[in-house]
Amino acid sequence: MSEASPRGTYLVISEALRKGIEEGEISGPLPSEADLTRSHGVARNTIRRALKVLEAEGSVESVPGIGWRTAQGGDRRSLAERMTDMIAEDSLTIGDTYPSEAKLCERFGASRTAVRRVLAHMEATGVLATVHGKGRTVCALPTSAGRS
């Protein structure tokens, strides 16, 4: 990148990578951090920040010994869509307990940070509510196949 971005260079790079993943140009393992550093003309730290953004939203995951790869193989739905769709898939109804963060991380292969962001969004949109001593419960059923 030859000029500074008003949005933050790492965000511009994360958008470019996200677009490549969504359009199917990038699948499986991502180029190495060194290759991404060279192709974008930025420092490795900038690449790592961009990858962390994508990891938090569930688009990519870090695999020890392999590097970064697109998350969940063939499932193109975002983590938010998968977590919302889980309500219908598991036949949860209003008042039912939603799974714990640990169980969600295990089920979706996502980081706790990514899961917490989606849970916060689900609470903000009224799909889930936190009940002291009981955990999170379903308080509204999502519409349009889990997209809110």
Which stretches are low in confidence, meaning pLDDT under 50 for 5 or more residues running? Answer: none
Query: What's the domain count?
Result: 2
Query: Termini distance?
Result: 35 Å
CATH architecture of the largest domain: Orthogonal Bundle
The largest sheet is: 2 strands, antiparallel
Any idea what the shape is? elongated
Helix- and strand-based class? mainly alpha
CATH topology of the largest domain: Arc Repressor Mutant, subunit A
Strand order of the largest sheet: 1-2
CATH class of the largest domain: Mainly Alpha
Radius of gyration: 17 Å
Helix segment tally: 6
Q: What is the helix content?
A: 40-55%
Q: What is the CATH homologous superfamily assignment of the largest domain?
A: Winged helix-like DNA-binding domain superfamily/Winged helix DNA-binding domain
Q: How much β-strand is present in the residues?
A: 5-15%
Instruction: Let me know the average pLDDT.
Output: 83
How many distinct beta strands? Answer: 4
Order of helices and strands: HHHEEHHHEE
Q: How would you describe this structure to a colleague?
A:
The protein has 148 residues and is mainly alpha-helical. It folds into 2 domains: 9-70, Orthogonal Bundle (Arc Repressor Mutant, subunit A), CATH 1.10.10.10; 79-138, Orthogonal Bundle (Arc Repressor Mutant, subunit A), CATH 1.10.10.10. 45% of the residues lie in helices and 11% in strands. The chain has 6 helices and 4 strands. It has helices at residues 9-22, 33-40, 44-56, 79-89, 101-108, 112-124, and strands spanning 60-63, 67-70, 128-131, 135-138. The strands form 2 sheets. The protein has a two-stranded antiparallel sheet. It has a two-stranded antiparallel sheet with strand order 3-4. Helix 1 crosses helix 3 and helix 4 (79-89) packs across helix 6. The N and C termini lie far apart (35 Å).
